Amino acid sequence: MDNLSKSTDEGKFYVDIQKIWQEALPLLENSMTQVIYDTTILSIIPLSFENGVLTLKTTNDFYKPSIEKRYLSEITRCVRTVSGMQDIDVRIVAPEDFDEDNLARRKNYEETNLRRRYNFDTFVKGKCNELAYAAAEAIAENPGKTEYNPLFLYGGVGLGKTHIMHSIGNYVVDKYPDLKVLYVTSETFTSEFITAIREEQIDEFKKKYREVDILLMDDVQFLEGKLGTQEEMFHTFNTLHNNNKQIVLTSDQPPKELTDLEARLTSRFAMGLTADINVPDYETRTAILEKKLDLEHLDIPLIVKDFITRNIVSNIRDLEGALNKVTAYAKLTNAKITLDLAEQALKDLLTPEEKPDVTVPLIQQIVAAHFGLTTMDLSGRKRTQSIVLPRQIAMYLSRKLLDVSLPDVGKHFGGRDHSTVIHSCEKIANEIETDTKLRTIVNDLERNIKGD
Known about the structure:
452 residues
């Protein structure tokens, strides 16, 4: 600590924050991936030390939430280690925290109840949500001026309804800052309505909800059975719609199946555009996982990414939760992220019903991911050793695990003839008898393909 702090002539305690930070950097570099360190940690500069708090400033507003959520505890630990002060705290700030105009905008933004991380840039479009996404973009560009009013989104839990709703709100706030945007859940709407009645503030309640330009209400199915709240929602809806204000609603069911809601309310919910959001397919799940990895500056092996994508199929929330669990498990055990680690971390989430059907394309995808290749590499004409061996392994496993003919296997691998398939299968079968490393690789791939 002697080289990091001293008393000044005035007797005040001085801490060399530059030196503390420079000595903390190597510890941080060793505790995370190089990509995260280079992009996120190196964006930070020490700003001040006051009342036991070291203030660090990231030069990029975008990095602040990620640093606070994922890396603040590790930064604090490293700072305490090099400074010798175990009671020191760390605070992260960004350029936006010093912009007075921005501070005013942030206050107004907080009143919208929107979450900034949910926006169109972080949303992944796929066949499961393409209509909802297209309608949301159109509404965000021209709120209240399209035929999609209201926009009613429905689908199961964790499929992205709330994300799309916030994306609309965030886009409008950025493009049309003078418009009043309000996001609310139906439960909050109900709770505030009850409070307004009890405290005789019903006029204030009506003003809050009927003078907005865009009302975003989540989970309207929870209005079922609440007749007084439904009555208020009916009048709020009419006021907004008659004034060409945009309304966006979400539910777990389409309007016609909300049988415990008054018919006059469900008929209004269905008068604009109703769009469903379905369970994402493999390609969309892969894109979602890659998007999250990119946003979090994470990097995991292709075979692990493929394992998560194939086994977590229920919804986006579970998919992202599985990734978080794998990365947290690796960090807590101080281990590298491997297929074995992912299987161990997610063993409680996997069920036999979620095991994928084994097909030649599945085998190709898993083998390609393991070797850092694409399925096009396996079916292409290149004959480099780095591609030939994985191609032969994929052919071998196709014959071993599936009841398919030699010509059928060959068709999946660029139209190769049966003699090529025979040669590949015999070569791998012979080599795994003597090559322990190759046998381990093939066995691991087989286990992953079968979902065991």
